[in-house]
Each structure stands twice: as structure tokens, then as C-alpha cells.
């Protein structure tokens, strides 16, 4: 299983790029949003990857963050959603937008993705609604955790111990961070998380996020 690739971009196409990893070229398919955020040809890039193997097909899909990769894995677990549809949804909404749409039951936002009809959009929201808070609670990337720079990995392939991961933050702090990533203001997010924490003492991060989103959802 190929879980991550770090190398130089040889060329870019409409839906994929070729990454040279010390002389071996990998074709990696990405969403429109991910491709737009990547550097140009000749630059170093690091992507988390998911390898799909079938009888007549082998494809590698790339993601900037573990959250994006996890949403791709969950989206493709929904009946009728293949890798192409998953990348379309992630390209239209981004991982944070997918989290918010599914957590709030907003299937119209999912339907806005190219090639995704209302029935598939509704199925995505229904099948994954209980999993959204857990994905939203994920944060950080492998590079941040290890303090690695992609170019440094290419130029100096020397093994070194990873930096110590920061101490785990409280459930409320993690919930606040997740809501902030979704675009909620600090005041609104803090108020919702505080109310949720007061209503559910000892609740974990996914439970706090779920309750806070309900409090922040438009009324009426």
C-alpha cells in the first residue's frame, strides 16, 4: 500500500500529475482544488495517497491532508460514489466543506459537485452523517507532526527521530479548532462549545462538535 509520496512534479494534467520519486514516476490523480493548490513543475510536493487496485485498473489518488484522504475513503464507501465522484465533491467543497455539509445534512451542497445527482447527494449525507464529527476532529499533517520539509526529504534523505508530538489538547479546544476551520467566528464557536460542554459534562470531541453544530445551525 502506498500511503504517501514525496517527489518532484514532472508534469501536470487536467486531473493528475506525474511525480518523480528518485527516478520512479507516479501518476497521481487529485481533485481540482488540490491541483490548484500544488506548486509548479519542477517543485517538490508531498501528498498522502490512496491506491485503488482492480482487475483491469490500478490508480493512485493524492491528497494534501489526512482529513481529505479520510473523506475520500468514506465517500467512496457510499454506494454509487466512485473515486471520480469523490474527487468532484472534495474539489467543489474541500474537506472542511464536506464535513460541514454532511454534519448539517446539507445535501444540496453535496449536489453542487460536478456529476453528483440529488439521490447520490442524499445518500452521502445519510450514510456519513454520524461519521462527520470524528473526521472534523482530525487535525494536522504528517509533515507538521514530524517537522519535515518536502524539499529537505528529497535533498537530504537522512533518517532522524521525529519531533515529540504536542500534548493532546482538551476536547473543548479540539472542538473549537474544528469549528474555526469550518469558518465559524471565535465568539460563536466558543459559546456553542461551552453550552454543549455544559449540557454534556465529560463529552468527547466528536460529541461536542456534533452538539455545537446543532446549536449553530440556522433556526427556522
Report on the architecture of this protein.
The chain has helices spanning 32-37, 66-75, 83-103, 107-111, 118-128, 132-136, 142-146, 150-155, 171-181, 186-199, 205-216; strands at residues 4-12, 16-21, 24-29, 44-54, 57-63. It is α+β, with helices and mostly antiparallel strands. It folds into 3 domains: 4-63, OB fold (Dihydrolipoamide Acetyltransferase, E2P), CATH 2.40.50; 66-136, 5' to 3' exonuclease, C-terminal subdomain (DNA polymerase, domain 1, Orthogonal Bundle), CATH 1.10.150.20; 171-216, Helicase, Ruva Protein, domain 3. A 5-stranded mixed barrel has the order 1-2-3-5-4. The longest helix is centred in the middle third of the chain and has 21 residues, at 83-103. The radius of gyration is 19 Å and the shape is globular.
How are the strands ordered across the major sheet?
1-2-3-5-4
Largest sheet: 5 strands, mixed, barrel
Number of domains: 3
Strand content: 15-25%
Q: Runs with pLDDT <50, length 5+?
A: 140-147, 158-169
Our count of helices gives 11
Secondary structure: helix percent: 40-55%
Number of strands: 5
Give the SSE order as H and E letters.
EEEHEEHHHHHHHHHH
Residue-averaged pLDDT: 82
What is the oligomeric state here? single chain
Amino acid at each position: 500500500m502506498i500511503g504517501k509520496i514525496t517527489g518532484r512534479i514532472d508534469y501536470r494534467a487536467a486531473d493528475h500529475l506525474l511525480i518523480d520519486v528518485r527516478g520512479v514516476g507516479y501518476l497521481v490523480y487529485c481533485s481540482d482544488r488540490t491541483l490548484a493548490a500544488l506548486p509548479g513543475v519542477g517543485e517538490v510536493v508531498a501528498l498522502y495517497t490512496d491506491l485503488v487496485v482492480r482487475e483491469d485498473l490500478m490508480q493512485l489518488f493524492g491528497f494534501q491532508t489526512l482529513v481529505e484522504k479520510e473523506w475520500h475513503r468514506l465517500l467512496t464507501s457510499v454506494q454509487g460514489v466512485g473515486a471520480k465522484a469523490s474527487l468532484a465533491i472534495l474539489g467543489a467543497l474541500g474537506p472542511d466543506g464536506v464535513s460541514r455539509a454532511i454534519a448539517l445534512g446539507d445535501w444540496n451542497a453535496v449536489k453542487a459537485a460536478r456529476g453528483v445527482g440529488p439521490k447520490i447527494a442524499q445518500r452521502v449525507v445519510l450514510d456519513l452523517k454520524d461519521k462527520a464529527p470524528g473526521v472534523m476532529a482530525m487535525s494536522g499533517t504528517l509533515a507538521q507532526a514530524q517537522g519535515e520539509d518536502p524539499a529537505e526529504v528529497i535533498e537530504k534523505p537522512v533518517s532522524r527521530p521525529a519531533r515529540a508530538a504536542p500534548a493532546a489538547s482538551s476536547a473543548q479546544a479540539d472542538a473549537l479548532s474544528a469549528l474555526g476551520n469550518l469558518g465559524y467566528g471565535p465568539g460563536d464557536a466558543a459559546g456553542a462549545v461551552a453550552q454543549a460542554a455544559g449540557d454534556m459534562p465529560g463529552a468527547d470531541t466528536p460529541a461536542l462538535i456534533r452538539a455545537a453544530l446543532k446549536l449553530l445551525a440556522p433556526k427556522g
